[in-house]
Protein 1
Amino acid sequence: MPKYLLLKHYRGAPAAVNDVPMDQWTPEEVSAHVRYMEDFGARLESTGEFVEHKALSPEGTFVRYGGEGRPPVTDGPFAETKDLIAGWTIIDVETYERALELAAELSAAPGAGGKPIHEWLEIRPFLTVPPTITE
Amino acid sequence: MDEALLRTLTPTVISVLVRRGADFATAEDAVQDALVEAVRVWPDNPPRDAKGWLVTVAWRKVLDAIRAETARRDREVRVESEPAPGPGEAVDDTLQLYFLCAHPSLTPAAAVALTLRAVGGLTTRQIAQAYLVPEATMAQRISRAKRTISDVRFTRHGDVATVLRVLYLVFNEGYGGDIDVAAEAIRLTRQLAGLTHHEEVAGLLALMLLHHARRAARTGPDGRLVPLAEQDRGRWDTRLITEGVDVLQAALARDRLGEYQAQAAIAALHADARTAEETDWVQIVEWYDELVRLTDSPVARLNRAVAVGEADGARAGLVALAELDPALPRHTAVAAYLHERDGDPVTAARLYAEAARAAASLAEREHLTRQAARLNAQLRAR
């Protein structure tokens, strides 16, 4: 079964249909959103398709090797960086079509006014191990 | 404590419980519980009769489950605590389990998981590790699979082809963890071959043995993929090859060819060549023709193009390749290989790099990237 990463962006994805920042929602709308996400995760587990769900802090720093005996060099955070990943869900499904279906379901999480956000999610296949029989 | 023995007893014990009247899902759970208990108890207190012990303990668990269920429903159900063993042959029952676990109503992933648990006797945790998912996810996958087949009659014979597809998947995909998934697939196929005389079961067993024989030579010390032509054939397991060839020849002699026998025949021809140069590519092309006739599979056609390239020259291989859909997985990698053989390193290098970007596995990507890098370095040195 192929595994897919459903990637959620703070920045860098095209604008959602219902594109209102979360802090402008009512508290009930925030709760409804969180509940939807929890239910989605539970549903995935019950269908045997759940692998992992993780969220990232928006704060990040770039770092690189500074040379022999020197400390690592850090830079940023850069407010203008195009891509900012918010978190991911990893699923293990039968087909690509099923992965799209689940991503769409995740994107339908309710936002402002209780309406679906229609958020753009990036979907990426994982590299696998090569099959034994190839000839 | 012999865990392998425990595992081989799993389907028999499930069958005994089902014959005594337990439903499959309950029996399967009970045997898993009994296996766990065996692992705990046996080291200090080994039973004289392993199977008898498992049946007794698992049957007690079935009764517990039925009583709990009865209590929950709050109604009286009379439970026979010591029923006489029902009719039926144990051999046939194990065969039924294979059919049930590969039932066509199950998705491939569900059938694989259920087969490994109910026929293979592996734990949910081991199966989860082999497929890199959390244990809870695998547990759900297995219980859903059991619900899906809860109405299937245990006595109904199925189609051997569905079972073979599941076993092929177990052999060909899986990451490992605690258990050797490929070896487990061979064990289950070998056991199946003892239960039925279907030629294709023998064909699949031969195919697995012949590929498993190359396992040590397939990856380099750094984990890199070593292509067939570059493998150290001294590291091939001759015992497995001999067994694979014997099994295959016995199957072919019955003159009912199928896709697994054809694939095994190709693997046997590779095994037969002491060096890559000695490979009988003409015969291999003929087997691919059979395989294409039997399956009409695009993957078989792609592999046939490679074989044609070896038998009749790279140009002929490219002609065969030109008839195929370029969107096929590995199509670009094959094109790169044939173009290099055809004396066009510039095109080959470009295609290798392109194929690397499209590779489905890390090992393949690294292999293809290395090929592109090798050609580019040669081109720069000109």
Protein 2
Amino acid sequence: MKTQGYAKAQLYGRDEKVYGGLNAFFLLMDKPEVYKLPSEANATLPSRNNLPGYVGGVATAVVGLIAGLLAFRSGRMNANNNTTTTPR
Amino acid sequence: MEHFASPPHWEWWILGYFFFGGISGGSYALGTLLRFSGNARDESAARVAFITSFIALVPCPIFLTIDLGQPLLFWHMLVDTSNGGLAFKPDSPMSLGSWALLIFGVFSFVSFLGAIAEVGWFRATNGIGRALRGAAGLVWSAIGTVFGLFICAYTGVLLAVSNQAVWSDAGWALGGMFVASALAGSAALLLLLARSRRDVDADTAVRLESADRYFAILETILIAIFLVLLAIAGTIGKVLGVWIVLWVLVILGLLASLAMRSGAARRWPPVAAPILALLGVLALRALVIFSAQT
């Protein structure tokens, strides 16, 4: 096709550049983006968010639990201090 | 990231599940924290938290199974019908979430039974109430808290691994944002209930306000990160526009939590700030769920 003047012609999915291979290939006459297909550059799957998503959740949970415990315990210390100083 | 999949059509049932699941997990965590704080005066609020957690959990499996379209096949989430074994897929947030919901349900139910026995509503479970006192109860509720907070977080991860703009663009931030929001909403709800009950210590309510403020700060940070990630991905426009109305509710909810201890807020009706905070939690989930699918 290229020798016939179709410089942008390509076999899409033939190699492993897009999602590690598609088990099929397609003759495109232009860049994949023209056909609203993922290109080599942006072909990432959202499953890549799986582990980072849990890590973000765990980190937030830990910070939240520590913050909550601090809120409950610091208030208790203040309450105890107030109780101690009241008789004076 | 190129988004090429059709929207999953997750709508009101899923919004209800995300909201009540978050409140259930968050309330359980707060009940545990109150017990770990070691103050006997917090015990009443801790019991309210465990009761709230289970009541909020009850609609969750109902909403989920209705959303499946074929509610009677809900057990397919847990059992592999091809070989009769368990359907447990560690790589799938949906599978992990199904199992976590089941396990957390056991912890929440047992803690609920113990709490209602201690408040005198149901004497038949006095034995559970006694068993959950002391170190054994702390261990039980600590393990339950892990599963409860997992319920809060995995809903965000579930969205993040779906091939939709906004959800997958938010990457790691969605799970954390939902955890922080669940904790803030649960603290607001517990505060609302505490203010309407005479047996909850006034000092505990003040400390719940402090906790809610910390959670709201955490939530604000994660919302900011969420928006930055969307801006980098070029999809921030999807959560603006008509969704500004929901953002206003989110911001009002955060401000209500942050300002709860200020002098101005003291002049508001006692229920105003907690209700605003809860509406903000609901609005945040609504705009994340709906904006990505339009």
Protein 3
Amino acid sequence: MKMLHALLNQRLRALILKEFRQMLRDRRVMAALVIAPVIQLLVFGYVLSPTVTNVSMGIVDESATPESRELVAALVESRSFRLADYYDSVNALGNAIGTGKLDSGAVIPYDYARDLRRERPATVLFLLNATNANTATIAQAYVEGVLQSYNAQLSPTTASSAAVVLQPAFLYNPGLVISWFMLAGILGMLLILVGSTFSSTLMVKERATGTIEQLLMSPATTTEIIVAKMTPLFLAFSVMGLFALVLIRYLFGVPFNGSIAVVLGAGALCILCGISLGTFIATITKTARQAQLSVFFLNPPLTSLSGAFTPVQAMPHWLQPVTVFDPITHFAAITRGALIKGSGFDVLWPDFFALLVFTFILFSLSVWRYRAQL
Amino acid sequence: MSDAGSQSAVSTRDLHKAYGSVDAVRALALDVRAGEIFGLIGPDGAGKTSTFQMLAGILPPTSGTATIFGEPARKARMRTGYLTQTFSLYPGLSVAENIRYVGDLRLTPRTDIETRGRRYLEMFGMAAFADRQANQLSGGMKQKLSLVCALVSEPRVLLLDEPTTGVDPVSRREFWDTLVSLSLEGLTILVATPYLDEAERCNTVAFMDRGEIKELGTPDELRASLHARRLVLRTADVSSAQKALAALGKDAAILDVQRYGDHLDVLATDTGAAQHAIETAMQQNGIAVEELRADDPILENVFVASMRAAGDEVASVPFPARRSHRDLRGKAAIGAERLTKRFGSFTAVDDVNFEIRYGEIYGLLGANGAGKTTTIKMLCGLIDPSDGTPSLAQDEDVRSSRVHQQVGYMSQKFSLYDDLPIDENLEFFSSIYGLNKEEAAQKMQWVLAFSSLEERRHQVTGSLPGGWKQRLAFGSAIMHEPPILFLDEPTSGVDPLARRSLWGLIDELADAGAAVLVTTHYLDEAEQCNRVGLMNFGKLIVEGTPSELKARQKGHLLEFRVDQPQKAVGVLRSPEQQWRVALYGNRLHVIVDDAETGKRETERKLAENGIAVRDVREGQFSLEDVFMASVEREGVA
Amino acid sequence: MRRVFAQARKEVTEIIRDPLTLTLALLLPAFLLLLMGTAISLTVTELPIVVQNLDGSLESMRFVDAFRASQTFQVVPWPVSEQPERALSSNAARAVLIIPPHFGRDLLRGANAPVQMLIDASDPNTAQLTAGYAAEIVRAYDVNLAPAGRAPAVLAAIRLWFNPGVDSKKFYGPGMFVLGLTLFPTLLAALAMAKEGEDKTILQVYVSSISAHEFLLGKILAIMFVSACESAILITLLLTYFGVSFAGDPTPFIVASILYAFCVAAFGTMIGAAIPNQVAAVQAVALGGFLLVFILSGLLFPIDNIPVGLRWLSNFVWGTYYIEVVRDAFLQGGGWSAMWTKVLAIAAIGSAFYGIAWRNMRSMQLKS
């Protein structure tokens, strides 16, 4: 009842109208609300990809026989490797890898074909530039995979007697489309980071220009003031979020396997959380510059700890529990679960709960700090 | 004042500056003699700042030339010092580092930076603060440091754009004393100022409006050009006297009436006729006249007359009052009981007690940093007091919505939203105070009319010149007709004409029963308050009606008219008791303990230094004298 | 020259006096290097998997033990009554290994024993790694199982160069070093420049008749000094915590670092000169500098993965070249012969930024 009454009062309406007008007049905000999601989604969705394909490979073929050429063909055919060039010596190949021209190299020994014909195991040397650990690990798996099937072709008998055969099945994203993974994380980053950046600058503006005193001197209560400030931001970010979802669905073709309501609910919470975070930052900083820089300080850790781009399991053990305190972690878990895996609220409720707790704490802190900031 | 007729220090020919279709400066022709103080006065948006920027060589003129000692202004930059309206200091640097940076940029020899820096700092009484960071200086000191920075390269021309706006009277006076001594050393100074008492201290004054010079001359010449005299009417009932005079209309040769706390200034062309008319009017209304004497007009009279001639008259629009607070009259409205605020070890407000009643205008005066704004913020509940209790409308919960509904507040900073259009700002403030649609429309109409912004109602507020904004903010603060009104420097940066209309309205509101707490750096405005409290270092040191305060003042005030007033100040002033001597326009105020011996002593000193006394008489203390004496006796502010 | 130094000294003093800026300049990069260098990694360890052993024979136990023994996987318990897919949808595990009935019998008979692995591919990269690791374990198991003399025909001998421990820290550490040196000096430079415009102190500079070159160089010099301090801190961290060391001739790295500091300072100054508003300038730096360098430079993910239509853009991104120089200095050791073009590219891009900033400032007066 009290909520309803608060919603209907004239003061709050006046405050909300004012905030709307101010926001609509700020061309930078409006531009950023459209541009930020588009750029970030496109760039991260299309450009950022840890997928390892077309690893460039140099070959030293000392054998120079049909068998060796067959092996090279098998390596290239897999599309995991791209034949860059042939080299005369292991030294030359090593140099090429050392200067960064090549990612990998294969040295086929002169007795390769002879060994094969005599049914003796032939050893091929593979050199991988392990500077990038991820690429190297995946390339290593490729090499082994290619050789396994090559071996199977060479002597079917050998292969069939290999007792255990692994049949991997990739669930949820059988095409291993990397952008599906990225986009869910980016959506969370967008909502939290763009949300906190803009809300903190808008919130701190009132203080920097001194109008906050005028506002606090009016009959409006602190909660009314903050709710009024959040409302237009919430609506604007919701529109931005929906727009982002449309891009994700139709431009990137990410499947919506689960309940859209779950995603929307989580999105709303996530937006509120971002705005509350921005508001809180605004109440502890004095100028827009300080607010911006503080958000800047927060962004990279929030992003890198979220597991939105890199798996949490890849982090050191002591760091993994910390990710629980990152709202993006939870939102990413919800969107991935709800969109791609089709998980429901029954599975995702702990993440919802976490978002709710963050929002509540940050909002309360903001209201509490708002008056103290003068 | 040095040799006239020599080459002009600053000269402009047909100087023109246009921003798009707006002409900021039109066909400006100025000649400033070397070594003189040249004052530029005029309303907001008159084109003063653009003129300064062109003279400083940092704004290319649209057409025409500006030269400094015969050289184009841009090439002569090494010879000009320029003080911009905003502080151009680096807050992170110390006083000495600021000076050194500017000196280095201007390629002043290192040793000169050292010696000059030290000399000027000593001259300005800032030698002890050389290592203090600029952001920890008071407003007055920042201004003086800016001046030191501008002086360190020994420029031959100094351009000062409103250097004392927002600076308290004590610091202002010190600042001007410094300017005068610099000018006596041969420096040419161009200064823009909204304070007309400062303009009185210039050798030449130009009145600028809409990009053109309208009047030009020495203060004496300008006063003479009015062909009018100023009649000082001292009476106990100023309010009724003003009404009585207003009824006289334009007859009786009365050009203008200005109300002060305990007297009216009447500008009249024919002194005799006016004097007669006033006397009859007073008699008819049964108002006792304490004093009625003729005096020279002051520059403000000239300014007002010029602006009226230019059609800049601020329309007086009656306030559409709907509520009367008359029945509240006499009840306590604003109360401060042992109010104290400490920031760390620093006590900003120290045990302040006062009570303001409905219908009363209370002026809170004091130097920058004396604690006025902090006191207001505690009273309003914007900050919590460390000790003591504020109360508003007999309620100690000064934060409740009920109390806030009855309070109008205008902060020192501009208090409207710069990014919203004028009408949306007004709409917001009217609805947040719960005005119904019809009343809101009426009040908005009134605010627009009051601030002469009817045609610009859709313009973005931030694009308005300062004075207009200030009027608009004032108007929006009183739309809900609050019985309690806080005004923190409402007239800072506002031109004299607009200030008048603002004060007229304050009087009107108080007459209707509102309690008004106002702070100001214009002490002539403070004369219009019913009661005045003077704060220094967080303490309320004196309180009373302006007349009481003046009466309480010890000693006698002698008003001298001499041929070389600036020099006379230097001769008479002793460093320990600076407050005893002050320059008001072309008059010298000297406070002495005994009228007769004081007069003899002073005349002797002046004669010894070859200064001729034209006229001397015992005068009444002004509030400024009280302020200076009280503050300086308590210690340097 | 005196004016240049005066300007530089003023900038450095201002940065030192403002705690927020100082934190931004020195502390935050170190913190970020530690955090992100540690946190960002794609190579997972101890992935939780669920094993559904429907066979229960000795062979199947032994097979599961092979998985248990690996560093990569961590077998987590899962109630037999529950659907294994739920382990994935509830995020309890990243993969489920299903051993069918008769697994042991088939093996003993010398027949093929297929096992199924359900992998949560909502993170494709991890899924791929998981499949790779699992295949490796299975292969090793098979080799053990196979009778002697029936080894596969072609064996791979794989050598991992430059980073034999396949330690992500060594790859991302230098990357974050570049990111720190890109982001913070740019931000400082943009802020310092925008502030002069915003606070109107620029007017005082105009009046002093300092030239645009002197003014810009002074500012840039100050930021370069800050960059140098920052580099010193970050390099110390790289050499100690990240355990990398110079792989060869460090001179290309030193020269490139100086040029890069200039390039980045010039970029920030250019932004600040164009946008005399601190908040907007920070946003421009964030969007322009950060995003471009972060994404298009190959810092996080290989440039080869960028779609061809966009890949050419990375040629204009200053960070691209510096990253290669840094990785070369710490990991590959290619020296001048490999790096001289990159060093030149950094210098060229820096000069371009400086030129644009100068064009904007050259009149040294108010624009009408």
